[in-house]
Amino acid sequence: MLFRPPREFRRALCLAFVLTVSYCAFGLAGDVSPAHSAPSGWTWPVNRGRQVARAFVAPATEFGAGHRGIDVPAEVGEVLVAPTDVRVAFAGRVVDRNVVTLDAGEWSVGGSRLTARWLVTFDGATATVDVGSRVSAGDPVAVVSPTPHCACVHVGVRYAGEYVNPLLVWGEVPRAVLLPW
User: Fold this and answer.
1) Is the residue at 175 inside a domain?
2) For the whole model, what pTM was predicted?
3) Residues spanned by the domain of 104
4) For the chain, what is the mean pLDDT?
5) Quick one: which H or E segment has residue 19?
6) Are residues 4 and 55 in the same domain?
7) How many CB atoms within 10 Å of residue 5?
């Protein structure tokens, strides 16, 4: 017997498809997409080659499973630098690890007056500067602290409150691969 998804799911999927096509067809996506407004010239957070131990995996739904950032290999005690000019927005313990959040300020979106805030979070990091401090790109902001899951620092980036692939700000988002189904 063929599996058929519930009617509510089919309706939600249809609505999502119609909204996406409408959004793209009328050119609304061009001016507000993070890809079009991503800042350039950001500094890699660790002083070693650009390596990613675990890639970004967007969740299927807002609260669904995913990996909302990248894991960058790093040793405990290794210095983390500000990726761009930032203000330290938060530094402290969250559950079982140290976290540092950096506010990269507002960037204009697509040349319009609309602005969106970029936030960068280092999960598995202990701040070396005070909350509220302004730090220039490339200056030390934290050191890697022990995490229970890897010898790395988890780097998350939020654009206008939504998680995006952190490689977007470093101009290294992998090309999309279309599946044959």
Assistant:
1) no
2) 0.72
3) 36-168
4) 80
5) helix 7-25
6) no
7) 9
Domain for residue 180, yes or no? no
pLDDT of residue 110: 54
> pLDDT band at residue 130, thresholds of 50, 70 and 90?
very high
Cα 22 to the center of its chain, rounded Å: 26
Do residue 80 and residue 161 come from a single domain?
yes
Task: Please give the Cα distance from 80 to 120 (Å, whole number).
Answer: 12
In the three-class reduction of DSSP (H, G, I as helix; E, B as strand; rest coil), residue 144 is classed as strand
Task: For residue 4, name the pLDDT band (cuts at 50, 70, 90).
Answer: low
Q: What is the separation of C-alpha 147 from the centre of its chain, rounded to a whole number of angstroms?
A: 19
Buried b (16+ CB within 10 A) or exposed e, 92-111: eeeeebbbbbbbbeeeebee
pLDDT of amino acid 41: 78
Q: Which amino acid makes up residue 66?
A: G
